[in-house]
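Late entry, written up from scratch paper. The run itself happened at the end of the previous shift, but nothing got recorded in the book at the time, so transcribing now.
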Amino acid sequence: MLFLPGLITLVGVISVLGLINYLIRRDLTEELSVSRQLLMLCLTAAGLLMVIFSLPLSETSRGQILSLFGIVVTAVIALSSTTFVANVMAGLMLRAVNNFRPGDFVRSETFFGRVTERGIFHTEIQSEDRDLITLPNMYLVNNPVTVVHNSGTIISATLSLGYDVSHVQVEELLIEAANETGLEDAFVLVIDLNDFSVSYRVGGFSNDVNRLLTTKSSLRKNILAMIHGGGIEIVSPSFMNQRVLAPEEKIIPARRPEKAKDDLESSPEDMIFAKAGSAAEHEELKQELATAREKLEAIIAEIKSSEGNQKLAQENERERLKTHIETLSELLAAPQAGD
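Output as recorded:
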């Protein structure tokens, strides 16, 4: 019977932890996963201390057990320099900085893709080949991370042309190519004067980051079309030096019938970044669900002090919000693409 209080405390702690875990997991999202793990870790440690204090032990024995518990916790903290714990610390740091989220395009050193998951130990991105790349959080902390802003980015391309071509003519053609691609505020820069050629950079603003690869490809296609259409050759200096042709002859591809513009309803990004796109949609649904719940709480508070037609309208809005929240919850609970 001496251990009965400790046994009751142990059963109570396990029951409470199980209930809290169930309540959290019921509405679990990617954003809550790290917080849940940390919360459960802290609650488990607190429960363990409660069990220790409820055991029928002498002050000396209890002090020794608490000292051992403190040594274990200290040892875990001391291991923060190891890869395992360091990645946890890095994951918390990335959460605190919060410079990117699922669905964003990121580049770190040689890795480029869309974020699909942010875990406590690693971050997963989907590459241009549709492959999933797992990057340890320490890697992202130790290396610069470039995030493509979801409001838009600059799309650009570079090419080199000979000194015999006027830069004014080149600039006009490149600006036209950028405008044809749909880029805003197009610009052309002379970025280098090489031994045998001039290097140009053409770019412009695109607010559709979901079509990043398609827009880059379209820009390059339009550059080729405009430059060749303007009667300008794009060939290497060695090729030009080795050919024996009449001065009026030019190496320009034969003009072909124009094809219809790319179908905007379907693009390679839809297939390449399927999981990342799903993650981005999931993130938007979570935000919409949080907003809907806030509105529902506000409506419920207003109904208590309303009367007549105003109260009836608010009750209808309450029911609509409840239905909307149920729909969003079902969508969030559905499996994501790539799972």
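Residues 274-303 form the longest helix (30 residues).
(Scratch paper discarded after transcription.)
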